[in-house]
Amino acid sequence: MNTRRHFLGAAAALVAAGAASRNALAAAPEPHHHTSADTAAPLHPSAGRPYNPVVTLNGWSLPFRMKDGVKEFHLVAEPVVREISPGMTAKLWGYNGSSPGPTIEAVEGDRVRLFVTNKLPEHTTIHWHGLILPCGMDGVGGLTQRQIKPGQTFVYEFVLRKSGTFMYHPHADEMVQMAMGAMGLFIVHPKNPRQMAVQRDYAFLINAYDIDPGSSVPKVNTMLDFNLWTWNSRAFPGIAPLLARTGDRVRIRMGNLTMTNHPIHLHGHAFEVSGTDGGWVPKGARWPEVTVDIAVGQMRAIEFIADNPGDWAFHCHKSHHTMNAMGHSVPTMIGVQQDDLTPALQKLLPDYMAMGSKGMAEMTEMEMPLPDNTLPMMTGRGPYGSVEMGGMFSVFKVRDDLAPDDYRDPGWYRMPPGTQAHAVTTGLPPVTTDPGEPKPTTETLEVRKPSHDHQH
């Protein structure tokens, strides 16, 4: 029964919750915000234990403050606008102005205190994915804590028990909030900064969205049929290159928060899988790969020596994951002649363009009219033309003369003479045929040739 006593009790509870939230917010460090989609320089620690910071691809690391020996961070869950690639932005949910949110970096053995302020239109929590901590800090709404209501600030506090690559994301209305981009990386460095040291340490999250062409808000009920496959909410050519100096030891950390697995492939180098969800793989147990498959909810770290100068493709090997939104429902038109049909269709649809008769590569050169806020299906250019890729694709650039802390794009690689494939017209080897194969005759060729009527 809704009595006056119950109403006053509920009102008092709301006032008390608001007061507690204001008190928590007053004690929290000032929240830092960052909206740029550029890759920020590594954030070297200004206090606490030393560590070698990571470089978050198209992202940044969250500054902290030290208070009585505790590292304090402040995350703000809020709506954000993210540039997926030049020409397209998306209205997402994230933290501190970006989606994914900022990378949190700390050291094994640190006590961390994480303030979380909710500026979303609904309640939320944060789950610290992969971290070993007290049950009440695990961030599962309704099970281990009350939900963080809009306007409230909660605080999480625990000791980091092991180093490795971890993530954070909501465990409240998870299908919606993660589909909207609420997630981030949590990196725990070893106590000894010389342990497993590398010269370049990259990190990014694998995520995906379903955004209709011309729209800007993800469809949150999609289960499998996503049309934008991204790294840190960026699609090629918006994904930054990864750089290394020749001879550098490189680590790349990847976490998968999509709804499918991703075989991530690196050209020009072989690597070892050095880290998983459970922690670091002992050196004697590591295995060599050129492709690492990352399942849903998993993290993987790979390591290798960048000993092969050049511009090397780095991408998901599911071919439709290197394609943007426009291509997934286009019918296959290979072999269908459209020359007679096109003029008739253009009378009805002036912008109609015939495509696909010889494959889809021609679309990369077409200047098709697209809906506003939409990316071409395959885009991004290299020094020799279109790369014919979108989605989860980047370039690993290895240079002899790159300075140790230089993360500026050095431009395209110049192939040394005699090291590049090229066209030839003379000196070709003779064409041989199988002696048992009958030679084609004029008659058989005419039989194979399709008739004009059949083309129509």
- The average pLDDT value, as a whole number, equals 87
Radius of gyration: 27 Å
How helix-rich are the residues, as a percent range?
10-25%
Please tell me what the overall shape is.
Answer: globular
DSSP strand tally? 24
Low-confidence stretches: 1-20, 442-456
H/E element order? HEEEEEEEEEHEEEEEEEEEEEEHEEEHH
Q: Helical region count?
A: 5
Q: Structural class, judged by helices and strands?
A: mainly beta
Distance between the termini: 75 Å
Described by strand count, sense and barrel closure, the largest sheet is: 8 strands, mixed
Beta-strand percentage?
25-35%
Tell me what you see in this structure.
- With 456 residues, the protein is mostly beta strands.
- It is 11% helix and 30% strand.
- It has five helices and 24 strands.
- It has helices at residues 4-27, 174-179, 341-348, 442-448, 452-455, and strands spanning 55-56, 65-67, 70-85, 88-95, 104-107, 111-118, 127-129, 153-159, 164-169, 184-189, 200-209, 228-231, 242-245, 249-256, 262-266, 271-276, 279-280, 288-289, 291-294, 299-305, 310-316, 379-382, 385-389, 393-399.
- Strands 1, 11, 12, 14, 16, 17, 18 and 20 form an eight-stranded mixed β-sheet that branches. Strands 2, 3, 4, 6 and 8 form a five-stranded mixed β-sheet that branches. A five-stranded mixed β-sheet has the order 13-24-21-15-19, with no helix packed on it.
- Strand 3 and strand 4 (88-95) form a beta hairpin.
- The chain is globular and about 85 Å long.
- The termini are far apart.
- The model is unreliable at 1-20 and 442-456 (pLDDT under 50).
